[in-house]
Specification:
Blueprint (H helix, E strand, L loop, with lengths): L1 H33 L4 H12 L3 H21 L4 H30 L6 H29 L3
Helix pairs in contact: 1-2, 1-3, 1-5, 3-4, 4-5
């Protein structure tokens, strides 16, 4: 049972890190290049791509947190690594909440003058979320070798 929970936990964490990496390093730069000079069209497609993903990501985070807790309860050696991972996940989740419920509504209704700053802010926030979740993932791998 522990192995199954670990596979689900690590698999979903890898999917989240991979999805964020793909968006940040592949999708966003390609959209910027393809829609060069046509910001309104770029924003429209970006909104379509992002639409409907909030609750999927929150569900993903919830399962990662739940399986992480289950793993901790099954084996509490190196509990401090689980605590650090939980803190990183909590901070990444708070950033995701901000992006989803504060940043996006502002960006959707932004003027042409406001949009570039909001685009830069999203890249910064996405990079921070990726660093946090990637670090948590790496700590999980390291914990398995202690």
């Amino acid at each position: 049972m522990t192995a199954l929970i670990a596979i689900v936990h690590a698999g979903l964490a890898a999917a989240w890190v991979g999805g964020m990496s793909y968006s940040l390093f592949v999708v966003q730069p390609k959209l910027k290049k393809y829609f060069a000079g046509r910001d309104e069209e770029r924003e429209h497609l970006t909104a379509v791509i992002a639409s409907g993903n909030r609750y999927k990501v929150l569900g993903l985070i919830g399962v990662i947190a739940t399986t992480g807790l289950a793993l901790l309860l099954l084996d509490h050696r190196n509990w401090w690594i689980h605590a650090v991972k939980a803190l990183l996940l909590l901070i990444a989740t708070a950033i995701f909440w901000y992006v989803s419920w504060r940043h996006w509504p502002r960006r959707i209704f932004a003027t042409d003058a406001e949009r570039p700053a909001l685009q830069r802010q999203l890249i910064t926030l996405a990079t921070i979320m990726l660093a946090l979740s990637g670090t948590a993932f790496a700590l999980g791998i390291a914990a398995g070798h202690l």
